[in-house]
Amino acid sequence: MPDSALKSLEDRARHDLECLAYPTRGWSLPETHAGKPVLDSLIIGGGQSGIAIAFGLKREGIDNTLVVDRRPEGLEGPWISFARMITLRTPKHVTGPDLGIASLSPRAWYEARFGIEAWAKLGKIPRQHWAEYLQWLRRLTGVRLRSATEVVDVEPLPGPLFAVTLRDAGTGATEKITARSVVLATGIEGAGRWTILPQVAEALPRERYGHTSEAIDFDALKGKRILVLGAGASAFDNAATALEAGAARVDLLARRKTMPVVNPNRWMEFAGFMRHFADLDDAMKWRFMRHIFKLNQPPPQDTYERCARFAGFALHTGTPLDAIGMQGDEIVADTPSGQFRCDYLILGTGFHVDFAARPETARFAADIALWRDRYEAPAELEDKVLAGFPYLSDAFQLQEKVPGSNPHLSRLYCYTFAAMPSLAGSAGISAMKFGVPRLVHGLTRQLFLDQAEGHLASLTAYDEPELVMPDKAAREVA
């Protein structure tokens, strides 16, 4: 499609934003600390969630925000960096980052970019196009982003405020900024870290294995034998990428005896659940989430077939890893299904919640309330994994394990996959339509309550006349 179609859409989007802008006045009261301005919010993560949250705050009159992302410009989020699927897994009609404005929706952008007929023929949105759409949305909405910027510390200050230490990913230079609130929009692993099995880390040289979240030189795997641990979608994505790069053989080991075939995420995609799950009591939330976690999520059909079409691919169910080590130059893995020998190992072993492992939350980890601190499940419904997730407020705020122990936690917002048990917030695309407004509402509510005295003082000093009366002499002459 010609550039004129996209320009026309951008003009329409700007007009829509103008039509919906009332009230337009920014309302946060400026504050300084140590002579420097204080941000209303620092958003960590410049992917889809960070962009949408910053946009949502702008629409509520809060523009004193900054989004930072550790990756270089244009590579924010997983889509270009380590996501290895061909298309998104969600239906193409998904909305969310647009915050309900049709001219900013993925469909409107795709039709302007590639044509109405192309949209009609489209199955699912290619991940590169999704990344391009997000960059377009950020530019059009004016979200302020600093790329290649890592957060290395979040320190509580009196006020309450946060001193956030940022490091330039290129030069290593650091600086401190001050913010009233901090939002973790750091993706699926944003409340912990990717899981590297200890036995793997102890037994293998680092150059002989990689996690699906890491950069992997697939060209170097041409002609090699690859072992993949894990049965999730990312494990299959990486297996397929290795095969497409010319790997001689890929064996995928799954602990489960049978592969899951039902995707609970598709069931979840209705407004009642997405919007009102947060209103359930803890016992009902636990029952829902335990079943969802137990079902797990299968790889999409096209992802599985992407692997299965190769003669050199084999799926081994009921095959957990018992032991692994090096014999000469070979990796040797022992399993109940026999021994596997390979040249390179890929870990599709997911992530686990560990606030102490993250620089954003390390100072607060011991005080963060987890589900096990708030809810005791019946014996038949016990789940240690679920119990280790954070117990969040209705607006994605971290909460204190012991009331009064760390009030700053209410100013740390956790918009990551760790929000699933509390709010059905997956940090995925499907939940954004409901989760982002909830967080924005909570953050602006907190900001207004903090500044209520200042706004009252502003009101009492307000004396701008709206009605101009004629003076007495003029009235008498008339």
Q: Could you describe the largest sheet, including whether it forms a barrel?
A: 5 strands, mixed
Question: How much strand?
Answer: 15-25%
The CATH topology annotation of the largest domain reads as FAD/NAD(P)-binding domain
- Specify Rg, calculated over alpha carbons: 25 Å
For the secondary structure, the number of strands is 20
Order of strands, main sheet, comes to 1-2-8-7-6
Describe this structure in words.
This protein has 478 residues and is α/β, with parallel strands linked by helices. The chain has 2 domains: 3-191 and 352-455, 3-Layer(bba) Sandwich (FAD/NAD(P)-binding domain), CATH 3.50.50.60; 196-261 and 298-349, FAD/NAD(P)-binding domain (3-Layer(bba) Sandwich), CATH 3.50.50. Helices cover 33% and strands 18% of the residues. The protein contains 17 helices and 20 strands. The chain has helices at 3-19, 48-59, 106-114, 116-121, 127-141, 198-203, 233-244, 264-268, 271-276, 282-295, 301-308, 371-374, 384-387, 420-423, 432-450, 452-461, 472-477, and strands at 32-33, 36-39, 41-44, 65-68, 145-146, 149-157, 161-168, 174-179, 182-184, 192-194, 209-211, 225-229, 249-253, 313-316, 323-327, 330-335, 338-342, 344-347, 351-353, 412-414. A 5-stranded mixed beta sheet has the order 1-2-8-7-6, with no helix packed on it. Helix 1 (3-19) runs antiparallel to helix 3. The chain is globular and about 100 Å long. The termini are far apart. The relative contact order is 0.13.
